[in-house]
Amino acid sequence: MNLFKISIANLKEKKLNSFLSAMLLTLGIGMISLLLLLNKQLDEQFRRNIRGIDMVVGAKGSPLQLILSSIYQIDSPTGNIPLNEVNALKRNPFIKTIIPLSMGDNYHGFRIVGTTPKYVEHFQAKIKDGALFSKPMDVTLGSKVAKNSELKIGDTFASSHGLDSDGDAHNDKKYKVTGIFEPTGSVVDQLVLTNLESVWEIHEHAETPAQNVKESDPAHEEEMGEMHHEAEKQVTSALIQFRNPMGLITIPRQINQNTSMQAALPSIEINRLFSLLGVGIETLRALALVIIVIAGVSVFISLYNSLKERKYEMALMLSMGATRTKLFFMLLLEGLILAITGYLSGIILSRVGLWLFSRAAEQDFHYSIKEFNLLPEEFYLLAGALLLGLLAAALPSLGIYRLNISRTLAEE
């Protein structure tokens, strides 16, 4: 007697009950699995890009908006700030690095960011082809930008005003592609990087280099930042790294109280964002657990009714030599088959959900969330599903030991 084949045949006999039990398990496990995948990959994306950035300064407004727009490039900037106020921070002994950022245009939805080579060094981006931007209107493309736009070294293009690809094109000034970065897994992949002067030039704030400085000189970026007329220049924000923790204690308060700028701390704002998201995630997780428990009850009711309806069949099998233990394991096997089916379907469902989410994130924010590997937590989920299937099947299966063979056969 092949228990597995008999169990499969019994489940097929009760198609609707079996389908309902497996579907509930699939939904519950799929939801939990998807939440685990999203939580892990979003957390990795956020932590990876925030690394080495202790503070962001920008125009006054929402601190979270400032962090999202300056570090992750997924929100609108809060405004512009004077470059001379940013450069004044360089004199503070607690500050190690300042990376100014200037935004305002895009190319086919990919943001064009004016900055200095320090930004490239910070994210450890390496040139795959060509060279890093070195003079105004030169750009270096992130790997995703190059792949999606099909721009090549030497190509020129006009940017669109604003962060929307439908913005007015700056046809009078065109950028020239000088290099393409290797994939970094960071925000650099989805950016078009150029120097600050390019952004000012596009927006009619052109700045010419000093007579004794060549545009191709690598020191040009630094020297331009020190030139006069800084009061007329503006940037969108600046990424700052401290020399020691004392900077974190004193400088944000000084900036917020004594300047026209706002200081935002990425670690605090991202933790706040995740705590806000956490409420929704915990609610969905609790809902998924409730669904899984309902699935367990469904398995229990299905097998309980099945045992009642198959009493004569069971009694007949016992009279023909089958042992009660063997029939008990046969019923347990039905619960396990439903649990495994629900788990596998749930894992597949979560991957489909992740793929759909990744497509939406890629389209709206150019972020990829494509790690479909099994997580260690999902093995615990498998153990939980098997335990649930065993418990739900064990209770009705115990009835096989109370079955009176002669009375059951006589009644039928």
Automatic annotation (TrEMBL):
<feature type="transmembrane region" description="Helical">
    <location>
        <begin position="327"/>
        <end position="349"/>
    </location>
</feature>
<dbReference type="Pfam" id="PF02687">
    <property type="entry name" value="FtsX"/>
</dbReference>
<feature type="transmembrane region" description="Helical">
    <location>
        <begin position="379"/>
        <end position="401"/>
    </location>
</feature>
<dbReference type="InterPro" id="IPR003838">
    <property type="entry name" value="ABC3_permease_C"/>
</dbReference>
<dbReference type="Pfam" id="PF12704">
    <property type="entry name" value="MacB_PCD"/>
</dbReference>
<protein>
    <submittedName>
        <fullName>FtsX-like permease family protein</fullName>
    </submittedName>
</protein>
<feature type="domain" description="ABC3 transporter permease C-terminal">
    <location>
        <begin position="287"/>
        <end position="405"/>
    </location>
</feature>
<feature type="transmembrane region" description="Helical">
    <location>
        <begin position="287"/>
        <end position="307"/>
    </location>
</feature>
<keyword id="KW-0472">Membrane</keyword>
<keyword id="KW-1003">Cell membrane</keyword>
<keyword id="KW-0812">Transmembrane</keyword>
<dbReference type="InterPro" id="IPR050250">
    <property type="entry name" value="Macrolide_Exporter_MacB"/>
</dbReference>
<feature type="domain" description="MacB-like periplasmic core">
    <location>
        <begin position="18"/>
        <end position="199"/>
    </location>
</feature>
<keyword id="KW-1133">Transmembrane helix</keyword>
<dbReference type="InterPro" id="IPR025857">
    <property type="entry name" value="MacB_PCD"/>
</dbReference>
<feature type="transmembrane region" description="Helical">
    <location>
        <begin position="20"/>
        <end position="38"/>
    </location>
</feature>
<comment type="similarity">
    <text>Belongs to the ABC-4 integral membrane protein family.</text>
</comment>
